């Protein structure tokens, strides 16, 4: 049984990733009390920061992987971007609840004709010998004009993101979402890599 350590504490990401990386003989472990400041200027830099920090924490003796992802909106100069998780603090200097954070985007997008947006995910893997490999997933769509308060699926910006089929990500089951999402695309590439190079 091979163990892979995932550099995150986000339970929503953990649930999505564990479903995608359902590979026999591979076990995913989550570090306790793991926290890294995301000081990078790109998704790739932030993903690598987390992977390298965990690799060092485990004394360079265990394979690790991480991911960084976010929402990029054309009309907002590709914001929230790398600040997606903490856009409320970046923009307003204070923490907001999930619905309030989505409402902030809706307000900023008021009267914007161009509602094109995309989610991006970068997965970084560091093998036991220190080799780094990155995987990218991009998922395009548009920003809705209001928030879906009623659907229970998804998290983050899912209630305001419309797919090309005009469905919100929050309307999709986890299985449906993982088939098409940025995270699903990136981690499916990673899964194929793990199967091809099991050691």
From TrEMBL:
This is dITP/XTP pyrophosphatase. Pyrophosphatase that catalyzes the hydrolysis of nucleoside triphosphates to their monophosphate derivatives, with a high preference for the non-canonical purine nucleotides XTP (xanthosine triphosphate), dITP (deoxyinosine triphosphate) and ITP. Seems to function as a house-cleaning enzyme that removes non-canonical purine nucleotides from the nucleotide pool, thus preventing their incorporation into DNA/RNA and avoiding chromosomal lesions. One of its GO terms (molecular function) is XTP diphosphatase activity. It is an enzyme of class 3 (hydrolase). It comes from the Bacteria. The active site is at residue 68. It catalyses: ITP + H2O = IMP + diphosphate + H(+); XTP + H2O = XMP + diphosphate + H(+); dITP + H2O = dIMP + diphosphate + H(+). One of its GO terms (biological process) is purine nucleoside triphosphate catabolic process. Homodimer.
């Amino acid at each position: 049984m091979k163990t892979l350590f995932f550099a995150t504490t986000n339970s929503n990401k953990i649930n999505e990733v564990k479903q995608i990386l359902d590979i026999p003989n591979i076990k995913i472990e989550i570090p306790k009390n793991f926290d890294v400041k995301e000081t990078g200027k790109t998704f790739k830099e932030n993903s690598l920061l987390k992977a390298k920090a965990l690799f060092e924490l485990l004394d360079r003796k265990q394979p690790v992987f991480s991911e960084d992802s976010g929402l990029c909106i054309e009309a907002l100069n590709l914001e929230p971007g790398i600040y997606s998780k903490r856009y409320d603090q970046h923009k307003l200097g204070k923490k907001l609840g999930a619905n309030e954070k989505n409402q902030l985007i809706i307000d900023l997008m008021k009267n914007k004709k161009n509602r094109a947006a995309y989610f991006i995910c970068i997965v970084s893997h560091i093998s036991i010998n220190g080799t780094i490999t990155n995987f990218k997933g991009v998922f395009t769509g548009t920003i809705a004009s209001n928030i879906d308060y009623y659907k229970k699926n998804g998290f983050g910006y899912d209630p305001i993101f419309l797919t090309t089929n005009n469905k919100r990500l929050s309307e999709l089951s986890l299985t449906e979402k993982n088939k098409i999402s940025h995270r699903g695309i990136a981690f499916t590439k990673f899964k194929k890599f793990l199967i091809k190079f099991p050691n």
